[in-house]
Design goal:
By secondary structure, this protein is mainly β. The chain is built from one helix and eleven strands.
Length: 179
């Protein structure tokens, strides 16, 4: 929609994403990102931390399930883009308002880590089909590794995982556009 406030936040997950399902069966993942600006103070010749921003985020449907599977490591550095939203609720008889980020895109930051990405199968609605989720590996700067059964590789290395030539990598016929 036009006129929505879109922002990008780079920070660390403060905990594992919480995956829930609505009564209608839609998945929603909620998580918080901590982002602390750092500046170099020339007078003291050292780095200074600024005020930390704690941004509550929510993602829906297939993306929520993918996040819960792959972004489940506290401290993982992520890049999130989304729409800033405001919601109100009542607590102890008082109305409170919170700002949240409704996630459009998310991924691991590759500044201090590496990641292997495997595409999910796409259904006709533009999202992965039920039961077909992303498998990948995320390694952080300490060398710890979180894996979900990476695809076996033969002598072709990453070339073994290429999609068949007849579908153009999009799951449609060769003459169909990817959108």
């Amino acid at each position: 929609m036009a006129g929505e406030t879109t922002i990008t936040v780079i920070g660390n997950l403060t905990g594992d994403p919480e995956l829930r399902f609505t009564p209608s069966g839609s998945a929603v993942a909620n998580f918080t990102i901590a982002s602390t600006p750092r500046t170099f103070d020339k007078n003291s010749n050292e780095w200074k931390d600024g005020t930390t921003l704690f941004m509550r985020c929510s993602a829906w449907r297939d993306m929520a399930e993918n996040i819960a599977e792959t972004m489940d490591q506290k401290g993982m550095r992520v890049i999130v883009t989304g729409r800033l939203t405001q919601r109100s609720y009542e607590k102890d008889g008082q109305t409170r308002t919170v700002m949240e980020l409704e996630v459009d895109e998310i991924g691991p930051s590759l500044r201090y880590a590496n990641a292997k990405v495997n595409r999910t199968q796409r259904s006709g609605q533009g999202g992965p089909q039920s039961g077909q989720h992303e498998q990948g590996t995320y390694s952080n700067q300490q060398g710890q590794q979180h894996a979900q059964q990476p695809a076996p590789q033969g002598n072709g290395g990453n070339w073994d995982n290429q999609p068949p030539a007849n579908n153009g990598g999009w799951g449609n016929g060769p003459s169909d556009p990817p959108f």
